[in-house]
Amino acid sequence: MIVAGCDIGSLSAKAVVVDDGRVIASHVIRARPLPRDSAREVMGDLMRSAGLSPDSLDYCVGTGYGRNSVEFADSVESEIACHAKGAWKIVPDARMVIDIGGQDAKAVRFDDRGDVVRYVYNDKCASGTGRFLEIMAEALDVRLEDMGAIAARAQDPVTLSNQCVVFAETEIISLINEGRDISDIISGLHTAMAHRVASLARSIELTGAVTMSGGVAKNPGMFTALQEALQVKIRPMTVDPQIVGALGAAMIALEKAGGNGG
Length: 262
Description:
The protein is of the alpha/beta class. It has helices at 35-50, 79-90, 130-140, 147-151, 165-177, 182-202, 220-230, 244-256, and strands at 2-8, 12-19, 22-30, 59-63, 75-76, 94-100, 105-110, 116-122, 209-213, 234-235.
């Protein structure tokens, strides 16, 4: 049984195709201005890379903030449910996933089938999100993907006093003008963001193993900072953490189509 999941986020679009519970292809693109176009492009690229036609799919689930624009989806699910199911598929003994997306951060507790037990999210402020790091990278004139490696060189990390993106950016510019090392500034950014996300996760209680999804999970500096803030060892993903939501959508598609997602 061949199914797919399509996750349309604010900054990226992801799609995964699964054959009888096994991932056979995945694809990630930068989000287009219209969610509908993002869905069409990422799924088209995915089908070509997998050597499949859209007619090959038995079921497709759309998710993410643009899920209602996935015109070819048979049904849609919340990203909360999909990240839980995807995290459970990759790390079966995990019971919480922390997802830091482009415009929100969420912590989701789930059971031994990957079904949501409790969740909390922050979508009212950019701090604690991927967009926060993106803005800070622009202010520091560094590449977003280089921030983890740069932070690893820190000798004397700064302590940021502002959580608001606007004020944090102003504070960073002041630190640069004071001659503070870029690595120390980025390390301080990771720590400040990690403590904000850790506070979110603790509000629904840490029980069982924890894992991390979303594009920010690929930043080793942020991954380490979050572990230190939570004081637990985070289980790393064995797949690209950015596709976990799409994978979860595909696993739900498999269930809806009558397959076995275990």
